[in-house]
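Async update (no meeting this week)

Hi team, since we skipped the sync, here's where things stand on the single-chain job. The sequence we agreed to prioritize is pasted below, unchanged from the tracker. I ran it this morning and attached the output directly underneath so nobody has to dig for it. Comments welcome in thread, and please keep replies under the output.
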Amino acid sequence: MGRMIVIEGLDGSGKSTQIELLKKYFQQAGCSYKQIKLPDYEDPSSTLVRMYLGGAFGKKPEDVGAFAASAFFAVDRFASFKQHWQADYDGGRLILADRYTTSNAYHQLEKMPKDKWDEYLSWLEDFEYVKLGIPKPDFVVYLDMPIDVSQKLMSLRSEKTGEKKDVHEADVEYLYRCREAAMYAAEKMGWTVITCAENGEPYSIAKIHEMIVEALPQEFIYA
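Output:
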C-alpha cells in the first residue's frame, strides 16, 4: 500500500503553492509520487460540490447541514480514488493531496454544536475511511494563515483572475469559526500545524516550505 500526505488550510493559505514545492522536493529526493487535488472540479462527481459552493442550495454555508455537505465532498473523493489514483496507491506510491477528508473536519465541523464535535469527527472517519473505503492519510499538514492575511491574499488573487469568491470564501465569520474548528481537529486527529504569518504579515513561501520539510517524517523521503 502507498502512503499519503495531505496539505490542508483555509482558502488563501497557500496550499497549492506548497504542494508544488513539495513535488520539487520529492523529485530531487528521487521519490515516486502522484499529486491529487480535491475537489476534482473536472469530474462529473463534483457536481453537487460545485452547486453547493456556487450557492445553489443557499447563500451561506450553514444553509446546508454538515452531514449533507460532507456527503457531497465524500462522493467526489471516492470517485477520484476509484478512477484516478487507486492503482498508484495500491502499488505503493506516495500520494500528495491538496485537501482531503480532513477539509470536512473543519469546514463542516463548525456547523455542529461544540458538544457534538467529537461525535462528528468519529462519524466522518468511519464514513469515509471505513464505509466508503478511501485511504486514511498518514501525515496531515495544516497551514495556519490568519484570516485577515488570507483575505488580503484572496482579494489580490480575485483581482488578478477575476474569479468570484465561493460561499465559503465570502463568509468571513464562517472562516473564523472554521479556524477554531481546525485547531480543535488538528489536536484531536494529530495534524501538524504550521504557523504561516507573524504580526499580520505572511512568512515567505520559502520559509513555510522549510517548516513543512522539517516536520515531515523521514520515512516519506524513501516513499
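Quick observations from my side:
The chain has one domain: 3-222.
The mean pLDDT is 90.
Reply here if anything looks off.
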